[in-house]
Specification:
globular
Length: 442
């Protein structure tokens, strides 16, 4: 059996240790100071990766995880909240210093809701051949042999789940309802791809099921007070992702509405929208401090307008840019609902553009404030080049991937300095954290 002592937690969330020959090993389900026995799940030339199977001397910060599948969705269930916050801050400082080349003081913003905060879940499926019929049937098992699952960390093996503690309770309930319908209609495992569910703070849920065959059904999952919209998509087997190749059935609402700082915004199944609304509002309040009523805003990777639209009283005008047609459609509708699509008495106006950011870099101008909230890959090279060329007075950068954010800040450092940084615990019980950085010219 492999054995190692864990020295620290590293970016990504695993514990780091060194085995006898000096080789680095990254171990899940392990905390600093612990000596553990681990199962090897990946062997690379430069390092190993494993999962601790026995904790020989547990850390005082260790907790018993709430779920058997915790490594798949929230591997930091094993530690106290104070320990989680401490290591997120430490890892962020190290990332900003090592990749971004700058030191900073960091505070963590968050709230006490560390369970049931996720308003979006995507579940895979698995086949369960057991004959268990006891009253203790798992919450998400349904009536037949298909169950919901996640992939085990580091493996291609699916793990049956009962309920995800991170998810909104209504998401768990509706997932069970849809699963029951799947089993009632005996949809074969080979024809199932995934189900995506989204909720809002009013506990309304919309869902989309993706199947790999164009099947016909006599009935469909029934909507109720909180389950307000359902779509069934044929999704080509040529792609492993949940892509909507063709709509086979739809009923009820195709979107939800959420209120952010008093602004009501609509979003759909495929629209980017933050998963932890109360903590996201904390980030919005901080972003608002760096806007200017006399300047216009360019909002790249805007989604449905979740950053700039709730802050519409804090700038002169804005252009929202996103490559997702559904998201920018809702952004346009949200702006119209807020009466922002026509020039106001103060000259404020909201425009929307459905285009990848790197194809409309001409929108970045020296007299505008730039807001960016890019995907995990960070900013496109062409966006970086245009920023350096035009030198907008302020760049407000929100990111879910601190390593690419730090990389981009390093690239911009010849013109900009960091004047504000803060972390937001959008993702409790996981290694993930959101970072806000505000850049101004030297």
């Amino acid at each position: 059996m492999n054995k190692v002592k864990i020295e620290k937690l590293v970016f990504g969330g695993a514990g780091l240790g060194h085995i006898d020959d000096g080789r680095v090993v990254f171990v899940w389900n392990a905390l600093p100071g612990e000596e553990v026995e681990f199962e090897l799940i990946k062997k690379e030339k430069t390092h190993w990766e494993g999962v601790a199977t026995k904790i020989l001397n547990p850390s005082s910060a260790r907790l018993e995880p709430k779920e058997a599948h915790f490594l798949s969705c929230s591997p930091w269930q094993i530690m106290t909240q104070d320990e989680e916050n401490k290591w997120k801050i430490e890892m962020a400082k190290e990332t900003y210093k090592k990749i971004g080349g700058f030191d900073c003081e960091l505070k963590m913003a968050g709230d006490e809701n560390i369970w049931g905060y996720r308003n979006k879940m995507e579940y895979s499926f698995d086949f369960d051949s057991s004959d268990e019929t006891s009253p203790q049937t798992p919450l998400l098992r349904g009536e037949g042999n298909i169950v919901l699952s996640f992939f085990e960390r580091g493996k291609k093996v699916r793990q049956r789940i009962e309920a995800c503690e991170l998810a909104n309770l209504e998401i768990n309930r509706v997932a069970k309802l849809i699963l029951g319908w799947i089993n009632k209609n005996k949809i074969p495992m080979r024809g199932l791809k995934a189900v995506i569910l989204r909720s809002n703070l009013q506990n309304q849920v919309i869902a989309a099921l993706f199947i790999k065959d164009k099947l016909e059904f006599a009935d469909f999952p029934e909507l109720d007070k909180n389950f307000v919209g359902f779509k069934l998509f044929y999704s080509t087997h040529k792609s492993p992702a949940s892509v909507p190749t063709a709509l086979l059935y739809g009923v009820g609402q195709d979107c939800l509405t959420e209120e952010l700082l008093g602004a009501k915004l609509k979003y759909g199944i495929f629209s980017f929208f933050q998963i932890n609304i109360p903590v996201f509002e904390m980030a919005l309040a901080d972003i608002g401090k760096f806007l200017d009523k006399n300047k216009s805003v360019v909002d790249f990777y805007s989604g449905v307008g979740s950053i700039s639209l709730p802050l519409y009283n804090m700038y002169k005008g804005a252009v929202l840019v996103d490559s997702c047609e559904e998201a920018i459609g809702f952004a346009r509708e949200n702006a119209r609902d807020l009466s922002l699509t026509l020039p106001s008495a103060e000259g404020r106006e909201i425009e929307t553009t459905c285009m990848p950011a790197e194809r409309v870099t001409e929108l970045i101008e020296s007299d505008k404030i730039l807001i960016v909230d890019p995907p995990r890959a960070g900013l496109h090279d062409k966006v970086i080049e245009r920023i350096l060329e035009q030198k907008p007075a302020r760049v407000i950068y929100l990111s879910c991937n601190l390593s690419t954010q730090a990389r981009d800040i390093k690239l911009l450092s010849e013109v900009y300095k960091v004047v504000f940084t803060k972390l937001y615990n959008f993702f409790p019980r996981t290694p993930h954290v959101e970072g806000l950085a505000v850049l101004e010219g030297h």
